[in-house]
């Protein structure tokens, strides 16, 4: 018999209760995993997509929380010519639209990108399918990401209706990142006109010249910031830390995680307390055969830690499977690339250990407060 | 016998918050090493209370207790004493229902014998001594009362105590099992030079002991 035998057997003796507690913890942990995974996935999908375009610095309107609404004049791009460390600049108008549900599919929130055919974002597009007809003179058309095309059941030659206007599908592009797979691209001027934002963009993509290191990039950002007082420039990799939308999103996710953690603690605490109360006699017996406070305390703590660890690990697995499944549904597709770093899993395990410790401590304390003589009499 | 007693109770009294009248008053008792003592008395007279005070499971309200030179052992001391020097046997056997006979015997050794193989070997040996080798993997509910009490005795001997305190050890047993249990206690007692204090209703048992004491109205005489 090992010191773990008694706690294990004790938990197994009440399989329904232990099982339900494990399940409760698993659900809580799976909840935390999904919340954290969604936030991280969204962040990675977004930033990864921008990095894949070869954009190293992003410029947005200063002071804007809701970046999509914070537009600025597209003509500002001409003023970037004087910066020698920049290889290319591209303006971008990004809108979220609801594709017309009358076409027989469910209403879908879709990201619409307006790119300028003269600039690198457009020029570097690659296609898996493209219309033969030359469309450059005609501006009323769209390119679809493969996932979006699939979802809409459209291919080259089909027609897409956005806000009562019909756009022929002129190509299916090869997406750079999961987010783009679900996106729609159209000429900048068309999107500006369709959305009533003539001459406006909301993102600036800046590409650095080859060989520009981080230090030079930072200097460049300082330089840009002093010239364009209304704009804020951020290195792509640091976007998540500087965009307040993401900060709020992350704070919310942690808040939700802590609430879920609290629920896990209450579940475990309740189970262990119940278990200690009905085992008063047993604890009296352990006292009578020479188990001291430390040993009894550790017994209850061990039971609590076993139950939270088993539940927690089950929860991690359920959460991961759930996230992968979630990433597969159309509503989420393109917003989420479910991947888990060792560090994140480690953090969650730490979370679980804290949960186990907190919820076992009080029941364990109650166990050593039991008066053994009293306990032994009441059998 | 030895000059200093193993366990001494000096004017020990016990009263509970309610009712106020004393369960034990000015009890005077000394147990020598290797002595066999019977304690009798009517039900509710305080026999169990006395045993619990002798092993520190319950505190005396007044008076002094000396165990082998330790005067009024503190909570920690008592834990240590119960773990290594005092064995307890109860009327209700008090085996853990979820553990097998062998595991119940091993339970007091956890934290005292660190090697698990050694613990197991010792528990097997004890089980053999009480004649229940064939019951090693049985749970308490799969054994008769007499067998359970024999397992409980084996458990009480796990760390080779100097004194065994038995609270009506045959109270729940038929006469045949009772006789077996008593034989076992006697044999252990004779072989190991342990002190043995047996609380009992049975005057026959009492008559075979070195001393037979009786509690009436809280007085031990
Ligand atoms: N916690 C307690 N509070 C009040 N009275 C108690 C308590 N425990 C035991 N008693 C009383 O003390 C007396 C002695 O009990 P006990 O030692 O168990 O007697 P015995 O073992 O001789 O039958 C009884 O009258 C019992 O009701
Ligand atoms: Mg009694």
Features:
heterodimer, A: 379 residues, alpha+beta, ten-stranded mixed beta sheet, two-stranded antiparallel sheet, elongated, B: 221 residues, alpha/beta, six-stranded mixed beta sheet, four-stranded antiparallel beta sheet, 7 helices, globular, binds adenosine-5'-diphosphate, binds magnesium ion
Q: How do the helices and strands line up, and which of them pair or pack?
A:
The complex is a heterodimer of chains A (379) and B (221).
Chain A (H helix, E strand, L loop, with lengths): L4 H9 L1 H38 L4 E5 L10 E2 L12 E14 L8 E8 L4 H4 L3 E4 L11 E3 L1 H7 L6 E4 L2 E9 L4 H4 L2 E4 H7 L5 E2 L1 E6 L5 H14 L3 E5 L3 H4 L1 H35 L1 H9 L4 H36 L13 H27 L3 H6 L2
Parallel strand pairs in A: 4-9, 6-8
Antiparallel strand pairs in A: 1-11, 1-12, 2-10, 3-4, 3-11, 5-8, 6-9, 7-8
Helix pairs in contact in A: 1-11, 2-9, 2-11, 9-11, 9-12, 11-12
Chain B lengths: L6 E8 L9 E8 L4 E5 L6 H8 L7 E6 L2 E2 L3 H10 L1 E4 L11 H6 L9 H14 L15 H12 L6 E5 L7 H18 L2 E5 L3 H5 L3 E6 L2 E2 L1
Parallel strand pairs in B: 3-8, 3-9, 6-7, 7-8
Antiparallel strand pairs in B: 1-2, 1-4, 4-5, 9-10
Bound molecules: adenosine-5'-diphosphate (ADP) and magnesium ion (MG).
Task: Explain this structure.
The complex is a heterodimer of chains A (379) and B (221). With 379 residues, chain A is an alpha+beta fold. Chain A has 2 domains: 5-45 and 246-376, no CATH class; 63-229, no CATH class. Chain A has 13 helices and 12 strands. In chain A, strands 1, 3, 4, 5, 6, 7, 8, 9, 11 and 12 form a 10-stranded mixed sheet that branches. In chain A, helix 11 runs antiparallel to helix 12. The longest helix of chain A has 38 residues, at 15-52. Chain A is elongated and about 95 Å long. The mean pLDDT of chain A is 88. In chain B, 33% of the residues lie in helices and 23% in strands. Chain B has a 6-stranded mixed sheet. In chain B, a hairpin with a 2-residue loop joins strand 9 and strand 10 (219-220). In chain B, helix 4 (116-129) packs across helix 5. At the A-B interface, helix 1, helix 10 and helix 13 of A face helix 1, helix 2, helix 3 and helix 4 of B. Adenosine-5'-diphosphate is lined by residues 16, 23, 41, 43-49 of chain B. Magnesium ion is lined by residues 47-48, 167 of chain B.
């Amino acid at each position: 018999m090992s010191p773990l035998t008694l706690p294990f057997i004790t938990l197994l003796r009440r399989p329904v209760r232990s099982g339900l507690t494990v399940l409760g913890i698993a659900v809580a942990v799976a909840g935390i995993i999904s919340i954290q995974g969604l936030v991280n996935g969204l962040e990675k999908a977004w930033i990864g997509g921008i990095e894949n375009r070869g954009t190293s610095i992003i410029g947005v309107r200063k002071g804007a929380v809701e970046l999509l609404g914070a537009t600025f004049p597209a003509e500002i791009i001409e003023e970037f010519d004087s910066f020698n460390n920049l290889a290319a600049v591209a303006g971008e108008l990004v809108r979220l639209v609801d594709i017309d549900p009358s076409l027989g599919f469910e209403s879908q929130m879709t990201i619409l990108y307006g790119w300028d055919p003269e600039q690198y974002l457009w020029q570097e597009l690659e296609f898996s399918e493209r219309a033969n007809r030359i469309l450059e003179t005609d501006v009323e058309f769209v390119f679809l990401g493969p996932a979006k095309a699939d979802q809409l059941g459209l291919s080259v030659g089909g027609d897409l209706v956005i806000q009562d206007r019909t756009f022929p599908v002129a190509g299916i592009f090869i997406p750079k990142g999961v987010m783009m797979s679900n996106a729609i691209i159209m000429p900048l001027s068309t999107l500006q006109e369709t959305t009533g934002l003539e001459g406006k963009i909301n993102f600036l993509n800046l590409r650095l010249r080859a060989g520009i290191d981080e230090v030079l990039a930072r200097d460049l950002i300082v330089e840009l910031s002093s010239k364009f007082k209304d704009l804020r420039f951020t290195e792509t990799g640091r976007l998540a830390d500087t965009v307040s939308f993401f900060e709020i999103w992350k704070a919310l996710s942690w808040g939700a995680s802590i609430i879920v953690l609290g629920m896990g603690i209450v579940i475990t605490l309740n189970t262990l307390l119940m278990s200690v109360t009905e085992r008063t006699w047993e604890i009296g017996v352990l006292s009578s055969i020479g188990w001291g406070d430390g040993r009894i305390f550790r017994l209850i703590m061990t039971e609590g830690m076993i139950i939270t660890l088993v539940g927690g690990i089950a929860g991690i697995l359920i959460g991961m499977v759930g996230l992968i499944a979630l990433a597969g549904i159309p509503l989420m597709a393109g917003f989420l690339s479910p991947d888990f770093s060792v560090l994140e899993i480690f953090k969650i395990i730490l979370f679980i250990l804290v949960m186990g410790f907190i919820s076992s401590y009080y029941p364990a304390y109650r166990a050593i407060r039991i008066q053994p003589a009293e306990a032994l009499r009441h059998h | 016998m030895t000059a200093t007693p193993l366990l001494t109770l000096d004017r020990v009294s016990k009263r509970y918050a309610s009712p106020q009248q004393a369960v034990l008053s000015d009890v005077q008792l000394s147990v020598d090493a290797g002595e066999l003592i019977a304690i009798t008395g009517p039900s509710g007279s305080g026999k169990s209370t006395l045993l619990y005070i002798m092993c520190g499971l319950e505190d005396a309200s007044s008076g002094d207790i000396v165990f082998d030179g330790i005067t009024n052992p503190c909570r920690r001391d008592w834990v240590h004493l119960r773990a290594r020097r005092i064995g307890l046997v109860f009327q209700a056997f008090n085996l853990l229902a979820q553990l097998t006979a062998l595991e119940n015997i091993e339970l007091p050794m956890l934290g005292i014998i660190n090697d698990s193989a050694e613990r197991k070997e010792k528990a097997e040996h004890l089980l053999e001594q009480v004649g229940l080798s064939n019951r090693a993997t049985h749970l308490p509910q799969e054994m008769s009362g007499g067998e359970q009490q024999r397992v409980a005795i084996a458990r009480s001997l796990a760390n080779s105590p100097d004194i065994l305190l038995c609270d009506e050890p045959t109270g729940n047993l038929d006469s045949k099992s009772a006789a077996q249990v008593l034989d076992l206690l006697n044999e252990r007692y004779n072989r190991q030079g342990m002190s043995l204090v047996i609380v009992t209703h049975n005057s026959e048992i009492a008559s075979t002991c070195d001393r037979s004491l009786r509690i009436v109205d809280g007085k031990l005489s």
